[in-house]
Here is the input.
Amino acid sequence: MEQTVRKVRIGNYDDLPVSLGKAVVVEDKEIAVFRLSNGNIKAIENKCPHRGGVLSEGMVSGEHVFCPLHDWKINVSDGLVQAPDDGCVQTYKTTIEDNQVYVEVPEK
Amino acid sequence: MEKKKLVLIGNGMAGIRTIEEILKLLPDQFDITVFGKEPYPNYNRIQLSKVLQGDTEIKDITLNEWQWYEDNGILLYPGETVTKIDKDNQMLYTDKGKETPYDHLIIATGSNPFMLPLPGADKEGVTAFRDIEDCEKMIDASKNYKRAAVIGGGLLGLEAARGLLNLGMEVDVIHLADYLMERQLDRAAGELLQKELASQGMNFYLEKQTAEITGKKRVTGLKFKDGGAIPADLVVMAVGIKPNVALAQESGVEVNKGIVVNDHMETNVPNIYAVGECAEHDQMVYGLVAPLYEQGQALAKHISGMNHQGYQGSVLSTQLKVSGVDVFSTGLINETAETKSIKVFDEWQNTYKKILVQDDKLTGAVLFGDTKEGTKLLSLIKKGANVEEYLESQQGADNGESIVTSMSDDEIICGCNGVSKGAIVNSIKADGLSSVEEVKGATNASRSCGTCKNLVSELLTDTLGDEYEADTKESVCACTDLTRDEVVAEIKEKGLTHTKEVMNVLEWKTEEGCSKCKPALNYYLGMVYPKEHEDERESRFVNERLHANIQKDGTYSVVPRMYGGVTNASDLRTIADVAEKYEVGMIKLTGGQRIDLLGVKKEDLPDVWKDLGMPSGYAYGKSVRTVKTCVGAEFCRFGTQDSTGMGIQLEKKFEGLNTPHKVKMGVSACPRNCAEGGVKDVGVVGLDGVWEVYVGGNGGTELRQAELLVKVKSEEEVLEYTAAFLQYYRENASYLERTSHYVERVGVEHVQEIVNDDQLRKELNERMDQALGTYKEPWNEVLESETTLKDLYEKVATK
Ligand SMILES: Cc1cc2nc3c(=O)[nH]c(=O)nc-3n(C[C@H](O)[C@H](O)[C@H](O)COP(=O)(O)OP(=O)(O)OC[C@H]3O[C@@H](n4cnc5c(N)ncnc54)[C@H](O)[C@@H]3O)c2cc1C
Ligand code: HEM
Ligand code: SF4
Ligand code: FES
Here is the structure.
């Protein structure tokens, strides 16, 4: 069965700081939204699979964010934890329309 | 089936190696018990020379950690001596009254140092050089006494002598023969060696026999047979060792010079074996680890029931482990009517080589000055190689090829552990090894005397090519092959101003670096260009970006500035009010004499700061953190100086300074040192009319005592020398290198030389003032910037 999604507007593209993350609360979830230096917007679950670190506060390098708690390296496009650690986080699709940023979350 | 009981007497190098070999062959076959007289786990006795010479420390020479015994289910009784073996009932008895039965018993009790039975040999200040205790005794003696006499000019004696020189003593070496190391060297090499050591400050008395050790309770000197005498307040006897066989002998095991064993290391008593320096095989007793390890291997195979030809005796080689002096010797070295020799003496480079040939075969070699060929010669001699083979291999070496390239796979690289080139290369390839440490872990090569480290390193280069070269110098991180110094030099030379620019111009392997290099580059840029560099918030770790400490649940802690740890009623009241208003999770005093408000939500941080109205306490940064102070002269009955005042001045001056890693300080007003300056990056201690400044202490992960940098008279000077030290550290340490590591690495003497140079100190202070001139109080800066508040502190809620 196809999972239906809901587009949630999270704000103005220009308001997102470059090369940094931002925590966004959507219903009961917290999502980390990153504006990468190449201009792309990425969104992942804001919770490190290691011990729940707040990924939106991590250092961002290229396609990766480094968890602020114990430095796990996580790809913000596919959500995969990089070696030597192991794991993954939920990713969310993002779109930009009229300078507005949307995150697609599964419909309940 | 019940496991067989295997008991080892002697927790030393040969015995434990035997156990390791047995565990490799049959991991779960035996119940293993080990008795060791010394209260340590098995350590590398060989490295005691390096400990004495100050190149390493006792804690670093352990070969098998306590954990190893536990992991392998070995019952270890450290500090317990076996006093009796009942061979008929297969029982052991110890000095602590323990009785233990055995099925197999290995005796590996090593040797005792041979103490000349001279009058006075029992005086205080006379020691051997055999174990950790002897080593500590010498190190202690060097602190209170000046003159050492070493009896014995062999390997052990010379290594001890060099160690004592390094410990600041004047050293006389007394030797019976007319040249040094006469058992391993020929006269030419012995004399070269003596010249070299004399130039290092050793003093020699050759052809002297000691007749008496003089003194009352403690030794005061030596008297020679020929009537001469010298003063000494420490005497080290290094005249030889004798196998430790008393226990075996009393228990009815056959003993000659050592405990007599056959090719399977069996004694004449069933189920009792002997290995190591205490064993005598084919009328030979060995005193070097290589043969002992071969014995251990043979015994392990035998006990494990493997078919095996047994131990066949060994060809020995020796190297002197004195830094700056390379000596190697192996095989037969004395010329006779039947031998011919190849001799090369290069007076200019001060190297000497002699190779003995008999019936066209290599039989022995002595090298002085350049010992690179040593392992190669040893393996050629071991296999009885023809002189032609050696001469051919020489040509490769002359072409500038690494010596390991021309070695065949079965040639031995690590003599102590008998590890061949082939074994190392295979392991490098199969196990993906890339460092000497890893090779050591996987193959044992270079685990004992360490002299083959260079060869192992060359093998890594040879096998892995440039890949390895790059790894050996410590690069900033995996994103680049450049070292910290190279990067800083490029930043200065090319005028780079932004982390991304550095990464581009210096061809980083990753697009935007990583969590290691980004903050490091940001720091280096700020250090090089204090005025021009614009700090990059995205290159800052979260704590420094948000100016608060992240906690495990994503909340933050707030520590307001409290100069010198001194506060007042009104500040405390404000803090209490804020804590209540924002319902902080915990209020706690920190280790640095501050008040910590824990569990603050990120969104609340700006308001908390505004309500507090105090500057940031910088408890989160790679920066000057806190200056702890003691009560000091104002109140304390012991106080000699105004420590709180001094501390406040220091903290006000260096507040907010970015440093490679955190910097903690302490100021006390007397040597009781209540502010614990002995474990601070900068510790200041006030005495009557004097301030002592200590640096490089650490009370954290790796405890390190701070070392005295300077003694000064005035408070201004404390500030001036501290500034010079901190600036020098800022300019030269790697990012994330604490002062403790830095000072350890470069040596406090070096730092002293710099800060005591009036001109340099002045310049360092000028550059420090520039750096301090850019400081802006960060909490206030945040409160004043709409965009920062929005970008960093606001959480987005959606509908
Ligand atoms: C300073 C120094 C430098 C050296 N340098 C080199 C070098 O460069 N190259 C090299 O190859 N070799 C070197 N050696 C020699 C090498 O360390 C020894 O050959 C080796 O340690 C011998 O091993 P072992 O197991 O036979 O004896 P040990 O390592 O001495 O072990 C025997 C252990 O048994 C314990 N013991 C004795 N009796 C009892 C008992 N009744 N009950 C319980 N425990 C007992 C002893 O306390 C000791 O701990 C050096 C030695 C010294 C002291
Ligand atoms: C780069 C890898 C890792 C780093 C740097 C790291 C670091 C840390 C640190 C610093 C802590 C203490 C943190 C705190 O108390 O808040 C911790 C705790 C812990 N880590 Fe990791 N860790 C890593 C990998 C792992 C892995 C792979 C696992 C499990 C598969 C793991 C499991 C744990 C557990 C269970 C704790 C809690 C231990 C306790 O509370 O006693 N960690 N880690
Ligand atoms: S260090 Fe000395 S002066 Fe300072 S409080 Fe302690 S005892 Fe008093
Ligand atoms: S919580 Fe992310 S690395 Fe530990």
Observations:
- The CA atoms of residues 724 and 764 of chain B lie 5 Å apart.
- Chain B has five domains: 4-111+243-303, 126-239, 484-540, 541-621, 622-787.
- The radius of gyration of chain B is 32 Å.
